Amino acid sequence: MKRPFTREQMRLDIAAMIYADPDEIGADDNLMDLGLDSMRAMNLVLLWQERGITLDFSELAECPTLAGWWAVAQRRLPVALEA
């Protein structure tokens, strides 16, 4: 069974992609300022798509923060997966 996609899992995935401590990523920190470039962001979109969460890169680019991305993800999550 797949583990649920949560805001914390999103934070962990972002942190791994930019080689940062997850605790250093605040909800409203600009992810681009933390070192996330467009190629890494696209890799995250592909990773999450493999996990069954389809996110649109252009929507994520509008608000490049953990809080902004989580808001987009919540609109895409099946109710059973939300945490």
Write down how many β-strands occur, each being a DSSP E stretch of 2 or more residues. Answer: 0
Let me know the average pLDDT: 91
Question: Could you say which structural class the secondary elements and strand pairing correspond to?
Answer: mainly alpha
Poorly predicted spans: none
* Total number of helices: 4
Shape: globular
**Strand-residue proportion:** under 5%
Radius of gyration, whole Å:
12 Å
Q: The biggest beta sheet, please?
A: none
Task: Please give the share of residues in helix.
Answer: 40-55%
SSE series: HHHH
Calculate the terminal CA-CA distance, rounded to whole Å. 16 Å
Task: Write up this protein.
- It is a single chain.
- By secondary structure, the chain is an all-alpha fold.
- It is built from 4 helices and no strands.
- The protein starts with 6 loop residues before the first helix and ends in a 7-residue tail after the last helix.
What layout of secondary structure does this protein have?
Elements: H1 7-18, H2 38-50, H3 57-62, H4 66-76
Summarize the structure.
The chain is mainly α and 83 residues long. It contains 4 helices and no strands.
